[in-house]
Known about the structure:
Blueprint: E1 6-13, H1 28-34, H2 36-44, E2 48-52, H3 53-61, E3 89-93, E4 105-106, E5 109-115, H4 121-130, E6 133-136, H5 144-155, E7 159-162, H6 166-174, E8 180-185, E9 214-221, E10 225-231
Parallel strand pairs: 1-7, 1-8, 2-3, 2-7, 3-5, 5-6
Antiparallel strand pairs: 4-5, 8-10, 9-10
Amino acid sequence: MKQRPYTICLMMSTLDGKILGDKWGDSPQIKKLGGKFEEVHNLIGSYSWIVGRTTMEKDFTKFAKPIYKPGTPSIPRTDVNANPDAATYAIAIDAQAKLGWEKSEMHGDHVVTVLTESVSDAYLAHLQDIGVSYIFGGAAEIDLNIVLEKLYNLFKIDILMVEGGRHLNGSFLNEGLIDEYHHLLLPIVDGNHDNPAMFEIDSKAKRFDAALFKLEEVKRIEDDVLWLKYKS
Length: 232
């Protein structure tokens, strides 16, 4: 049996299941509710976390463009752990190397980016220069089973927080890789049909009709937020 981290998916949504907080306005109460995510993340534990490229770009790297080091010789497609002593990691799935990393830490967590072998040598050279770790999740497409096995063996990550967006959550769910799901239900109604929900799986790739979870715990926390905990 392959070894991998125990995966905990944490998401928050409105009462109508929408997840993009930047569409909810900027009132003090809305902003306070939005802060519940980090509060609960810290209550669950200070663990390494993983997000998709779109989430990392929007919330963390702020749409910085990729940086390429010119005149780069060929670089072997081998995984690089640039900081073996790191306690926690901020991990991004970025198959085509679209993220513009400028530093090797994100909120005190060492950055690991997950790439395919098709990315350029110039991009890898830049990552090496600034000390960002990287692993290859496949030749042309990401295989999450390979990624989790590498995170466990190379970075010693035994618990991993999966924190969106919807495509990444859906990919983990489709592969049967979510062990525990935490849902923060906020007292907000979005009503925007363009705002996505927590999980999205391409209908051609979907491996099941519906995934069943078992409710483990319900908590009412400050500001009328429900914290629901499920096990797979």
